[in-house]
Structures are given as structure tokens and as C-alpha cells.
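Review form for a predicted model. The reviewer records the input and the model, then writes brief findings.
Reviewer: anonymous (R2)
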Amino acid sequence: MGLSSSAPLSLSGNPTLVVNGALYVNRPLSGPNAVEISGNASLSVNGTFAIQSGTRVHCAGRCSPAPYPPPATFDRPLPDPLAYLQPPSGAGLSMRTCSNCTSMQPGIYSSQVSLRGGTVTMAPGIYILRKGIDVAGNTTLTGSGVLLYNGCEREQPASCSAHGGAISLGGTGSASLSPLPSTDAAYPNVLIFQARNNDAELSITGNSTTRSLSGLIYAPGSDGVAIGAGNGGLSIGWVVGTNLSVSGNGTVTVGP
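Model under review:
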């Protein structure tokens, strides 16, 4: 995370962020704060915690004593570890639509996917979401072995993804999504991939009792990745993005 105009990692309200693994934070575009913690938010890192030299963890909340280990530092900005990933091809995928549907099939969705309640099951495969997906209400969303690509297929001009939509997974329902398998040649363990020229915020919030997104969330060009557990819990595999904000009253766990 890094290269944002504010702190690349911010926690506010009453959430607990638990990172089971490594947490690396590059410097922001301006200001000294790599990490900002306010309110009753808390951070716990069970692994390597490192920020770029010349930055700091700024705490205006429940941080005394600090619940996280003192961060190590590194000199040069860390490069994008997934820069090699290419947009998926649309070859062989059908054009599809979904508005309050009860099941989804892999394919190219040219309009926004809108889910407002009920149980929706995603079949395994690649979902190219040209205009994003908006989940609200009491929707239960499940899917095993899926990739949600928020943008246009590689055969389309870059401007197609630049005018794409957002990913918003909210509401009071539950979600259980798992990524393409680790044996997949192109996108191993990748669950959400937002096009690099799509700057829309990626939001995973809501007030469900539990949500599990077990794969990698990759949003290199997004203006922000907002995650929150409401009054429940949220589990995410990994996050790579430019600006991560955590809020709510529950526990967000990143890593196994």
C-alpha cells in the first residue's frame, strides 16, 4: 500500500484490524503518516510490519500501549508485486446480465450487477464486470473458485475500463467467496482484480454477522479500498492497493 494523498492505511471508529502475515506500507504522496489510527480502533500485526523510511504510525486513539509491534523501515518504495497480471480475455465468455438474479454464471456483464436481497450463488469461473457490482440489502452471496474482474476484457480499448463502475459489497447479508485455485496459471488465489485505470473506490462493508473473502483483493488504481465489519466479522485473504481504510465496530482479519 502507498502513494496516496493521505495515510495509505487508516483505521477509524471502533474496528480491530488483525493482520496474520506481512504488512508493508509505502509513503504517502504528502505528509509524514504511513498509518493513522483514531477513535477506538486497534491494529495487531502477527508478522512483519514495515513502513517506508521517513514516515510514521500516527495514533490518536487506543494505542497506549501500542497493540502492534514497532514497525521496521525500508528505504525505497516497494513496487507493485502483481504488475505482471494482465486483464482476462473475453474469448469464449458469454455476454450476461444480472439484476436481482438468484444465480450467476461466468461471463461478461456489460451493465452493473445489482443484488438487493435473497441468496445468489456464483458458479466457478471468471466474471468480467464492465460496470461493477453493487450488493446491498439482505443478500447472501456465495461462490467458490471465482475471479471478479472489475473492468473490461483485454480485447477492449483501455478507455472501456476507465469508464467502469465500482465494486460495493455491503448490506446486512453474508458473503462467502473463494478465489481461483492456486494451480490456476494466470490468476492463482486472485478473487478481485480491479482494472489499473479504474479509480473507483472498492468497498467491502455492511453489517452482516460474518463475511469471508478468502482470496487476494488487488486494486492498484483505486482511489481507496474501504473495508469494515459493521458489528460482525470480516475475513480477507490479502489486500494490495493504494489506500486502505478500515472502519466499523467489528474485527477485520487479513491473512490466514
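Findings: Residues 158-162 form the longest helix (5 residues).
Further findings: The two ends are 19 Å apart (CA to CA).
Recommendation: see findings above.
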